Structures are given as structure tokens and as C-alpha cells.
Amino acid sequence: MTADVPTSHPPMPARKRDKRHLAIRHWAEAERPRERLLERGSEALSDAELLAIFLRTGARGVSAIDLARDLIRHFGSLKNLMNATPTQLCALHGVKTARAATLLAVSELSRRILMERAREGTLLNSPIAVRTFLTEHIGLLIGGKPREVFVCTYLDARHKLLACEESAQGSLTRVAVYPREIVRRAIELNAAALIVAHNHLSGGAEPSAADHTT
């Protein structure tokens, strides 16, 4: 799994105020993201416009869309932004605790929707199915985390997905895992099989020397 959220970021650049940086409420109604979404559908909006709807307002000298663009540019991608920590978010211009909480809630809802979709009839009964699941689902969940994360995927007797949960978070180079807790959870779920995975902040997908010895 890759993990490409930087541990530190350069400050977001200051913007010069111009007509497009006015508060969105001063824009023509047809140009406002919320109105465009209701009239034309979410597909018509850019990533920044969709994010601006959650932000609701901008910051001094910038509109909500400008702030959204700055956040995406600052972290390098939407995935990295959604994996940012509260401390990383609150350190940025225009983001305080309430706005950081909103972004964290959006990230968690996205994760839960992804798991709900994966749970609907997903059978992990072959190496190809497992590889696809790890790449398309687990990779999206932990690939951008700023620390090592250990994830457990619990399956029933037919190898149908029961739950996929983050079992532990560690540091930049290691994560401590307690088998007793994992077994306890497997018993609670009446799981018959288990798949485990964790990320490497280096971006490498191959097992490290520590992985082979633990």
C-alpha cells in the first residue's frame, strides 16, 4: 500500500483579492456550486466545487471554492486531504476546529459507504478477488494515512465479507498488533477466515524485513 500524505507542508500561498474571490453569495445564482448541483447534478461540479459545499464559507480574501482548491493543492490530492489529521488541517489558513471536524466526518462517511458497498455480496474466495479487494478498497482506506495502520478483514464460512476494520495505528515505521484483540473480534463476528494488511509510508508494497520476522 502507498502512503503519500506528507508529514509537513509548506504554507498555502496568500491570494490577491479579485472578483472571483468574492463570497459565493455575491456570485450570480447560476454560478453557485449548491445551485448548480441541484440543477445539473453532482457530476457537473469539480472536486473543489463539491468540497466548497461542505466548507460553506471561505476565509478572508478567498471564496469557499478558492479555499477548497488551496486545500486540495496543498495536500496533493483529495485522498490525501481526506486522510489528513486534525492537527494538519487546523494548521492551515481558513481551517479551524469546526471545519476540520466537517472534513473528518466527510472522510469517515466515505469510508463507511465504501465498506457498505464492498460488503454487498463481495466474495473473497480466490487470490485474484483478494488482490482486487486489497487494491481497490483497503488501498483507498489506508494508502494515504500519515502513519502505519493495521487493517483486519473478517470473512464468513463462504468467504463473504463481514467487516473490514482498522485494528491498530502505529508510528512512521511500525505498528503494534495484539492478536488477542483480533481473535476476540473474530469470535464476536463469528468469522471463519481473516485477511490482514498494513501500509508502508515508504510507498513500497513488498514486505519489509520486519514484516518477515513478526
TrEMBL record:
What's the source species' lineage?
Bacteria, Pseudomonadati, Pseudomonadota, Betaproteobacteria, Burkholderiales
Domain (MPN) spans 123-214
In the UniProt record, does the keyword Transmembrane occur?
no
Q: Which InterPro entries match?
A: MPN (IPR037518), RadC_JAB (IPR025657), RuvA_2-like (IPR010994), UPF0758 (IPR001405), UPF0758_N (IPR046778)
**What family does the entry list?**
Belongs to the UPF0758 family.
What NCBIfam families does the annotation carry? Answer: PRK00024.1 (NF000642), radc (TIGR00608)
Q: Which GO terms describe its molecular function?
A: metal ion binding; metallopeptidase activity
Keywords in alphabetical order:
Hydrolase, Metal-binding, Metalloprotease, Protease, Zinc
GO biological-process terms attached to the record: proteolysis
Q: Which organism is it from?
A: Candidatus Burkholderia verschuerenii
One Pfam family this sequence matches: UPF0758_N
Q: What is this protein called?
A: DNA repair protein RadC
Keyword Acetylation (UniProt): no
